[in-house]
Amino acid sequence: MLELDGLTVEYGDLTAVDDVSLAVAEGELCCLLGPSGSGKSTVLRAISGFETPAAGRVRIGGVDVTEAPPNERDCSLVFQDWALFPRQTVAENVAFGLKMDGVGAAEREARAREMLELVEMEGYGDAYPEQLSGGQKQRVALARSLVVDPDLLLLDEPLSNLDRRLRETMQLELNEIHDRVGTTMLYVTHDQDEAFTLGDRLGVMESGRLVQHDTPEAVYDD
Ligand code: ADP
Ligand code: ADP
């Protein structure tokens, strides 16, 4: 589903991502693990088209999108802070991507409701983001990114702002959601436990390089 082939991203003299090759199979949840500054977010930005690589190719679903603008890539990026639109209801937030795609009001409403059920937030459609807890906001944001049915979901430290207990709950929920919808996911984290809990496969980054890419068991044995 996703192929990176020799991906290299430079900021002036700094090589933030150095010759990274990585394949993520359809339906797989791959965790990209590494310390802060190792280039994980830059990889996600290059995949979603917000960063132009100095070298290498990006393919999504077999299509070379290296030169394509962000809106022409079949992927959806979820940011750290899960920013919801504060003046829109939960249902409107979730339906946002569908509106952009020109989907009619009745279908938007039906699909938003379906997504809210998936993340166990049914009944909150008319609430506003400020009325929700951190974990609830994250579930709404997850629903908002899943509703457009992206081929590939990119998540950048989505749980890092939560306390430990909520983070563990959300990890389990994310795993269940992934099992149910089967969306291919690339999940960036600096938290080793989280990566081992979530990932079908693990990519380990160090100073811009991918130094390991294997199953959690094999990475653990090293
Ligand atoms: P990570 O996500 O693993 O924390 P990043 O991809 O954010 O790492 O950053 C990798 C390296 O690139 C770091 O040294 C960071 O300071 C640098 N970097 C990231 N974004 C920029 C930018 N827009 N301009 C200059 N340097 C950047
Ligand atoms: P993350 O924690 O996801 O790695 P950071 O907090 O490192 O993100 O960076 C947040 C934003 O700041 C990003 O958009 C990144 O491009 C930018 N950034 C990071 N490092 C630098 C840098 N050295 N110079 C300029 N921009 C940077």
TrEMBL record:
- Reading the lineage from the top rank, the first entry is Archaea
Primary site of residence? membrane
What's an example of a GO molecular-function annotation for this chain? ATP binding
- Membrane topology type, per the record? Peripheral membrane protein
**Keyword check for Transcription regulation:** no
Q: Where in the cell is it found?
A: Cell membrane
UniProt domain ABC transporter: residue ranges: 2-222
Q: Name one GO cellular component term.
A: ATP-binding cassette (ABC) transporter complex
**The keyword Translocase is annotated on this UniProt entry:** no
Q: What is its EC number?
A: 7.3.2.6
Please provide the record's keywords in A-Z order.
ATP-binding, Molybdenum, Nucleotide-binding, Transport
What this protein catalyses is: tungstate(in) + ATP + H2O = tungstate(out) + ADP + phosphate + H(+)
Protein role: Part of the ABC transporter complex WtpABC involved in molybdate/tungstate import. Responsible for energy coupling to the transport system.
UniProt lists the family membership as follows: Belongs to the ABC transporter superfamily. Sulfate/tungstate importer (TC 3.A.1.6) family.
Q: How does it assemble?
A: The complex is composed of two ATP-binding proteins (WtpC), two transmembrane proteins (WtpB) and a solute-binding protein (WtpA).
Q: In its UniProt entry, what is this protein called?
A: Molybdate/tungstate import ATP-binding protein WtpC
Q: Which organism is it from?
A: Halorubrum tropicale
Fragment boundaries within the full protein?
Answer: 1 to 222 of 371
